[in-house]
């Protein structure tokens, strides 16, 4: 009688995580970028990253990015207030 010996094989599946790449846009030669412009651009990039995190079911990442967006909103408001004060102070 021949006994067949069976092997138990375990497969470990590691999820593939692809980093989200943000490509910096080259500055336009005709227009200098202001801090406010940079903050708006960063806010747009963060909003895109939040949507991607939600699509990938990464709630903690989406939450953290949302907090970053809140901080950016506050920085944009402060920049707008500073600009208004400068405009008011100008003769």
Report the β-strand fraction as a percent range. Answer: under 5%
Would you count the extended β strands for me? 0
Query: What's the tally of helices?
Result: 2
C-alpha end-to-end distance? 106 Å
N-to-C SSE string, H for helix and E for strand:
HH
Please, what is the average pLDDT? Answer: 78
Radius of gyration: 25 Å
| Helix-strand makeup class | mainly alpha
Major sheet summary line: none
Low-confidence stretches: none
CA-based shape = elongated
**Helix coverage percent of residues?**
55-70%
Keywords:
elongated; mainly alpha; 91 residues; 0% strand
Concise structural overview:
The protein has 91 residues and is mainly α.
How would you explain this protein's 3D organization?
- By secondary structure, the chain is an all-alpha fold.
- It has a domain at 35-86.
- Helix content is 57%, strand content 0%.
- The longest helix has 31 residues, at 59-89.
- The protein is elongated and about 55 Å long.
- 1% of the residues are buried.
Topology:
Blueprint: H1 35-55, H2 59-89
Helix pairs in contact: 1-2
């Amino acid at each position: 009688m021949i006994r067949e010996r069976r092997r138990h094989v375990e497969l470990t599946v590691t999820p593939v995580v692809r980093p989200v790449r943000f490509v910096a846009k080259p500055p336009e030669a005709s227009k200098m970028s202001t801090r406010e412009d940079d903050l708006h651009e960063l806010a747009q990039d963060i909003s895109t990253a939040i949507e991607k995190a939600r699509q990938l079911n990464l709630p903690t990442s989406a939450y953290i990015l949302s907090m970053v967006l809140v901080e950016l909103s506050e920085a944009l408001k402060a920049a707008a207030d500073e600009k208004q004060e400068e405009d008011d102070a100008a003769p």
